[in-house]
Amino acid sequence: MPTPPLTFPLHRTTPRPFSPLTDAEWAALAPLIARTDPRGRPAQRTRRTMDAIFWVACSAGPWRALPAEYGPANSAHRLLARLAHSGALDRLLLAASRHPMAFASVKSLEWRIVRAWRRAARLLPAASMALVRRLGMVSAMPAPSWCLPYPELEPLLLRVVRNLFRSPDRPRPSHSQLDWLSRFHRLIAGRPKLFRTTEPPGLAAPGVR
């Protein structure tokens, strides 16, 4: 999914207790998580499995604490991984954001979506980290915004490098210039290991202490 060009101020999503998807919420959510690979099998009872993902994400509890009424925890974990790898989680995040491409019908799911996105953060690529930073959705960020990638700065870095090395007759860059380039590159790439944020872990769901 292309990264939206707009950047929004940082904001926190208002926490909400977990509640199962309503018919209207599921109708808005289902098209965004539809399987795009026709060779794969559709997830069984996807609505219940999404409720399982949201239950674990909102409670911040372990998968083993998932109530039996939401099905096997392994099924929920596999679906979350599929959503992360297919780009569906990014579509959900964008739909619940303040971006013009957002869906008003998904806005009520914002807390559940940001918690699920953060739960799957280790499975997401750098482009997804850049997306959440651009959207300013602090509650979904797995680390402070300054730790996340800044791909929009890549053209600037490229221009600087070309200017420094544009001619073989030009003096070699100084150590301070090379050090600056290295620091700037690390800023664009983001930190390889992310710190935990101070965002509260979530609201306790029924049965979780």
Describe this structure in words.
By secondary structure, the chain is mostly helical. The chain folds into two domains: 23-147, no CATH class; 151-189. It contains eight helices and no strands. Helix 2 (46-59) crosses helix 5 (110-119). The longest helix has 15 residues, at 175-189. It starts with 22 loop residues before the first helix and ends in a 20-residue tail after the last helix. Mean pLDDT is 79; it is low at 197-209. Residues 21-92 form the Insertion element IS402-like domain. InterPro entries: IS402-like_dom, Transposase_6_like.
Give the key terms.
disordered C terminus; 2 domains; about 210 residues; mainly alpha
Write the layout of secondary structure elements.
Blueprint: H1 23-29, H2 46-59, H3 73-86, H4 88-95, H5 110-119, H6 126-135, H7 154-164, H8 175-189
Helix pairs in contact: 2-3, 2-5, 4-5
Report the sheet with the most strands, covering strand number, pairing sense and barrel closure. none
Q: Please give the radius of gyration in angstroms.
A: 20 Å
| Proportion in helices | 40-55%
Structural class: mainly alpha
Unreliable stretches covering 5 or more consecutive residues? 197-209
Order of helices and strands: HHHHHHHH
What count of helical segments does DSSP give?
Answer: 8
* Overall domain count: 2
Overall strand count: 0
Rough outline: elongated
Report the mean per-residue pLDDT as an integer.
79
CA distance, first residue to last residue: 38 Å
Q: Could you tell me the strand content as a percent range?
A: under 5%
Protein name: Putative transposase of IS4/5 family
Pfam families: DUF4096 (PF13340)
Domain Insertion element IS402-like: 21-92
InterPro entries: IS402-like_dom (IPR025161), Transposase_6_like (IPR052909)
